[in-house]
């Protein structure tokens, strides 16, 4: 029998994640694609807008699903015992689909600018992350640390009185905005702070599938880092939470 309440939660995870990627990848596209009025806005603009993107996703999904919007968050909360493992597959599926949908919308929105942008690496950067310096062990460490901080802070907020659904929504939309901005500004310079498999893998797959003029490779040799790193970081955060609290 289908759990209708879980369907509702998954639906809002899909919508929230799609909005997150639309606005998050959208600000990258606005900053680096040729001819955009937001061209060369800079790292501060990108990190602030990613924070606001998460805020919008939390406002949408928070009351219904807890606004995980991130497979690593769902896994970390389940590992810490504050979220049912039975819900994790549905949440992750919804998040991955939402990430793909959001990336496709960014492409459709900025199609003319993709067409006049020559550099294939620039086009890829609007979909997914690649490291500033390719050093996969350190890149993995950086993604793990950033996600550890994200999940540990979310878990810390579960100690007091919070919303019934535990996730980024339990922090409230504004605190999580500042948390994402802080991670981006402080720890994002090495890998682009994916800290979320749904932020990186589905948009990378969209890049692979979409008929983008002059696109290059999708960076599959690196694609496992922003998936494995966040998952490991979330599990370490869960373990630390249990030990500390």
Concise summary:
With 245 residues, the protein is mostly helical. The chain has helices spanning 4-32, 43-65, 71-79, 88-109, 111-116, 120-125, 136-156, 173-187, 197-209, 225-244.
Structure characteristics:
single chain, 245 residues, mainly alpha, Glycerol uptake facilitator protein, 10 helices, 67% helix
Question: Which helices and strands occur, and which strands form pairs?
Answer:
Elements: H1 4-32, H2 43-65, H3 71-79, H4 88-109, H5 111-116, H6 120-125, H7 136-156, H8 173-187, H9 197-209, H10 225-244
CATH class label? Mainly Alpha
- Globally, the shape reads globular
Summed up, the domain count is 1
The major β-sheet equals: none
- Under the CATH scheme, which architecture would be assigned? Up-down Bundle
Polypeptide structure, described:
It is built from 10 helices and no strands. The chain has helices at residues 4-32, 43-65, 71-79, 88-109, 111-116, 120-125, 136-156, 173-187, 197-209, 225-244. It is 67% helix and 0% strand. It has one domain: Glycerol uptake facilitator protein (Up-down Bundle), CATH 1.20.1080. With 245 residues, the chain is mostly helical. The mean pLDDT is 94. α3 (71-79) runs parallel beside α10, α7 (136-156) crosses α10 (225-244) and α9 (197-209) packs antiparallel against α10. The longest helix has 29 residues, at 4-32.
